[in-house]
Design brief:
Number of domains: 4
Number of strands: 20
Oligomer: single chain
Helix content: 40-55%
CATH class of the largest domain: Alpha Beta
Largest sheet: 6 strands, mixed
Number of helices: 29
Radius of gyration: 30 Å
Mean pLDDT: 94
Strand order of the largest sheet: 7-11-10-14-8-9
Strand content: 5-15%
Distance between the termini: 39 Å
Length: 806
């Protein structure tokens, strides 16, 4: 019997979430207690798959493995760029997995993805080609090799897309079984109809393309993939292994059992799904009944002996082909019965109109500056990947028609950025869900708005009104919103910023932070030229001159700025463009005089006279800084209220206990005071260098017996952060028994918090110590009492963290 081969593919991708004007993700409250959804899903999925656990019979961790090294995977370029910046350890583990699989199989397990997850059959030829070229360039820059395969977003496919893949050296892609029309052996003429998902997924298929090229397609096992993603197969890794082992046909031919699902299935959609996958792969590997492989390795040894025809304009997530991304086809999340998606077509038409209005104007304008506007756009991916001044200059040296002035370079970069956002606005997530005012759809409209803004600045044209005519025809399911135009005006337009708004942000935030002379805020660099800062009680004043530069377009401008804090949330700032020394000197003189005389009305008059309608408030701040400053402003008030509540709680605690024992109701004011005081006290104990654990236990007991509404989710996250900080410090000084004891004692309190505490990183650090320091300390323990004590403490920590110490 021929050996069986098994491959599990994970498509790891998240919608891009960056503010298009800042190029950073701002705080997302729905991801609480994490900063944003990328951070949360990294903690739940991307990180755990890089260090996944295999358990022994006692449920303890006996092995930590890198799932990525034993599966096939792709990461969306916009997601992996975020990981490289925000989760570098996870990112390096992903790259390491590809190197490991390359050494094991002769082919790396990573494949590329069309760049920003647009629906390829709905794109024009030029955009398809850019998506492929950008996806390849991004992959090469990270993995150091040309990709052999490429994932098509939503597996949406047509022959032209496959032809472009083949043109660029891509040898295979992965499709759903329902996308196969008919198949036949290469040496036969008669076709077999396989529509309806009846294709045999255990073999690769050659697809002949209009140009005469060919590409290989793997149609994954749809039933097994469905049960992994939506059934119960991830409840038990051994069950998953058995299902995969049983899936191969019983004949003497080599067969590939393979599935493809969203990578987030393994940990985010299904908690501990990464561990089920790790257990399944381990079981398969140890069984000897099948060999784990990846697509490229299988293809090298077993090239296609069959060919297939695909059903064009189809995908894996729309029963109607690709209609989910351009019409009210009926596909939706199922979470909002009765809602309509009639907005999808007008939104698609709006984007197509904007793209087609921009294209000829871009071509003409940049053609005066660069050779071959569209080839230059394709090459622009290398600037996106490295925006250093040296690399940008090299880009211009390759493409410029003549040595470009600084102003011409800014114009060229704005035009190229215009095209980047004209691609990003097609990101598929904008059409996938139920409502035009949803965050994913707002995101793609923001990309369109950024393209419109750049066209206004670089081309001198305003396409906003024409774009809004289309959005006005896109109905919202939310009565108070009405249509897409309102979405634009309410959620998109207020987010737009320019260099003046960056200067205003800096002015306000500099009241509360001590910035160096040069600082970076999001994708802008601020250089402070001169400044005056004063404080009197709760009143603060800043007057300065600054240069603001975009690190994206290299556009810069000079401003005179001033900001005034009058206590509480009363903050005012003003911005004047085109700084002049006399202007700054006059403003400083007037504000300084009024401030030193504590003449608030005079200060306000000066602001009114100099800045007129160019004033800003706390609302101007970018969201993260806004939250930070609001916390500063509220700290004193919160501290005062917590102190008052603490006194009420402590003064009446015994009375509350007495009432509780009698079964008498406790007055609501007492309970409210206890909730605030106990939660604050618990957070303080967690943060203390020497935590009072007896007090911690007593506080939790009080909260439990009185049924207090404590934010256990927030406390669990605070505990996670504290444990990680302790574990990191201990990992650097592993023989420090005091740190080890404190870490263990706090970890023991995890079960009391009701909400699970993510100890993944702590376990990783302890696991490393288990393999490095622990064996040495154990050898010393027989003759060294301190080492013996350390060993006993470490074994206790392992028990607490569910690590198999031996």
């Amino acid at each position: 019997m021929a050996k069986r081969f098994i491959c599990v593919h994970g498509h790891f991708y998240q919608p891009p979430r960056e503010n298009p004007w800042l190029e950073v993700i701002e705080v997302q409250d729905s991801a609480y207690p994490y900063h944003d959804w990328n951070a949360r899903i990294t903690a739940e999925c991307y990180g755990p798959n890089a260090w996944s656990r295999i358990l022994n019979d006692q449920g303890k961790i006996m092995k930590i493995v890198n799932n990525y090294a034993r599966m096939s995977f792709n990461f969306g370029p916009t997601l992996i760029a975020w990981l490289a910046d925000q989760a570098p350890a996870v990112y390096e583990r992903i790259l390491e997995a590809d190197r490991e699989s390359l050494a094991t199989h002769g082919h790396g397990s990573a494949i590329a993805q069309a760049y920003n997850h647009l629906i390829m059959p709905l794109a024009n030829t030029r955009d398809k080609r850019t998506q492929v070229r950008w996806g390849i360039a991004d992959f090469v820059s990270r993995f150091g090799r040309h990709p052999e395969g490429m994932w098509l977003p939503e597996t949406a496919v047509d022959l032209e897309t496959l032809d472009i893949l083949a043109e660029h050296g891509i040898t295979f892609t992965i499709l759903a079984p329902y996308q196969a029309r008919r198949v036949r052996p290469l040496d036969q003429e008669e076709w077999q109809d396989v529509e309806g998902g009846r294709v045999d997924p255990s073999r690769p298929y050659l697809v002949r393309l209009p140009s005469g090229r060919t590409i290989t397609v793997f149609f994954y096992d749809g039933g097994t993939a469905h049960d992994v993603a939506f059934g119960g197969l991830l409840n038990d890794g051994h069950q998953l292994a058995a299902r995969l082992l049983q899936a191969a046909p019983a004949d003497d031919q080599p067969h590939l059992v393979h599935i493809a699902t969203d990578g987030e299935t393994f940990g985010h959609h299904h908690r501990f799904g990464d561990m089920a996958l790790a257990a399944a792969l381990e079981t398969i590997e140890q069984s000897g009944e099948a060999e784990l492989t990846n697509y490229a390795a299988f293809l090298e040894h077993y090239p296609p002996t069959w060919e297939a025809e695909i059903i064009e304009q189809t995908s894996w997530s729309c029963a109607h082909g690709v209609e989910r991304w351009r019409s009210n086809c009926g596909c939706n999340s199922g979470m909002n019965p009765g809602w309509t998606q009639e907005w999808r077509q007008p939104l698609r038409e709006a984007m197509d109109w904007l793209r087609d209005e921009l294209a000829p104007r871009y071509e003409e304008a940049i053609g005066a500056l660069l050779h071959d506007p569209w080839e230059a756009r394709d090459d622009y991916i290398h600037v996106i990947l490295d925006r250093s001044p040296e690399n940008v200059q090299h880009f211009f040296e390759r493409w410029q028609r003549h040595p470009l002035s600084k102003e011409e370079q800014v114009t060229a970069l704005k035009l190229l950025e215009l095209q980047r956002h004209a691609l990003l606005m097609y990101t598929s997530c904008g059409w996938f869900f139920d409502e035009i005012s949803g965050i994913e759809t707002v995101q793609v409209i923001q990309y369109a708005a950024r393209a419109i803004q750049l066209a206004r600045e670089a081309l001198g044209i305003d396409l906003e009104s024409g774009y809004l005519e289309f959005l006005e025809r896109a109905p919202s399911n939310v009565p108070e919103i009405g249509n897409g135009r309102v979405v634009y005006e309410r959620f998109v337009k207020p987010a737009q910023i320019g260099l003046a708004e960056v200067a205003a942000h800096y002015a306000i935030s500099a009241l509360f932070e001590n910035y160096p002379e040069q600082t970076d805020i999001a994708c802008y660099t601020i250089q402070q030229q001169q400044a005056y800062k004063a404080e009197a009680g709760r009143t603060r004043l800043l007057v300065a001159t600054v240069d603001v530069t975009s690190t994206i377009t290299k556009e810069d401008a000079q401003f005179t700025i001033a900001a005034l804090h009058l206590g509480e949330h009363n903050v005012l700032s003003g911005v004047l463009p085109d700084h002049h020394p006399e202007q700054y000197k006059a403003l400083l003189e007037e504000l300084k005089t009024s401030f030193e005389q504590a003449d608030i009305p005079a200060l306000l008059r000066v602001f009114d006279q100099h800045f007129s309608d160019q004033t800003y408030s706390l609302r101007t701040l970018f969201r993260d800084e806004q939250r930070k400053i609001l916390t500063i402003l509220l700290d004193s008030a919160i501290a005062e209220s917590e102190s008052s509540f603490r006194h009420v709680y402590e003064d009446n605690r015994l009375l509350m206990q007495f009432l509780h024992t009698l079964g008498a109701p406790i007055p609501r004011p007492f309970l409210a005071a206890a909730e605030v005081a106990i939660e604050a006290a618990l957070r303080q104990v967690i943060a203390d260098e020497e935590p009072d654990l007896a007090r911690f236990d007593q506080l939790l007991d009080d909260a439990e017996q009185w049924g207090l509404a404590i934010d256990y989710t927030g406390l669990a996250y605070a505990m996670q952060q504290r444990l990680e900080a302790l574990a990191t410090a201990w990992h650097e000084h592993p023989e420090d028994s005091r740190l080890l004891q404190t870490l263990t004692a706090l970890a023991e309190r995890i079960p009391q918090l009701r909400e699970p505490v993510n100890t993944w990183n702590v376990q990783n650090l302890a696991w490393d110590v288990r393999h490095t320091i622990y064996p040495t300390m154990k050898e010393r323990a027989d003759n060294d009492p301190e080492a013996a004590t350390w060993v006993e403490q470490f074994q206790h920590l392992c028990d607490t963290l569910w690590l198999a110490c031996e």
